[in-house]
Amino acid sequence: MQKTSRRLISVFVLMALLVSITPVIAQAAQNTQPGKDRAVFIHYKNGTVKPASPGKGGLAAKDYVFLAKGAKWKTLPVNYVIDPDNANGLSDVFITNAVSMAAEEWDRYTGTELFGSYTIDRNATWDDQMQDGRNEILFGSYPDQKVIAITVVWGWFSGPAQTRQITEMDVLFNNYYTWGDATVDPSKMDLQNIATHEIGHGAGLGDLYYTTSVDETMYGYSHEGETKKRDLFTGDIAGIRALYGN
Ligand SMILES: [Zn+2]
Fold this sequence. Notes:
By secondary structure, this protein is α/β, with parallel strands linked by helices. Helix content is about 25%, strand content about 25%. The radius of gyration is 16 Å and the shape is globular.
């Protein structure tokens, strides 16, 4: 735990420096993963960071953005691991239902069988230093209370578009928050809502920060009680179809 925590702190410090250019795409450390890239997406609570204005950071004012143009899964379906521990008492069934419904929401709009099955593993790891080939979704403490969740996506994100691909996604939900079903209790951070957003990064989509994007699942901010990211909006649907077909 201590080790994970130090690692998360160092990631946070790096990301804090680069917060204006989300998504942050950095070369993986050469000694661990030669030739592989990673993107880290930090999901903040509303109002903590100023939205980037359209045009800045290379972002165009459109309804979806790619993680890295052409970077998508090529080995399908994407199976994943859920670790239901460290969620402040939420049941395994609640967590696996919320996360799998989030994954299926993306599948609903593309003819490709994108996300497959999950397994429960209580020793999942959030791999920001070196990928381990497992797509892991877990809860843990994160040193910044304004961060709701953080997703790291590994793959090849440079070079010709057709050679790019995603090879791993890991999602960490910050257990500083009380997670649950916000349709029942709006004081909760809605797990399905945030999971749908984070899994969208895992599929190859980036964050949107425009005032015109507030209804999109890939809009970059959330808060307790929010559930509208559970359902894909027009830009999300256009984005997932651009990557994986109708
Ligand atoms: Zn995001």
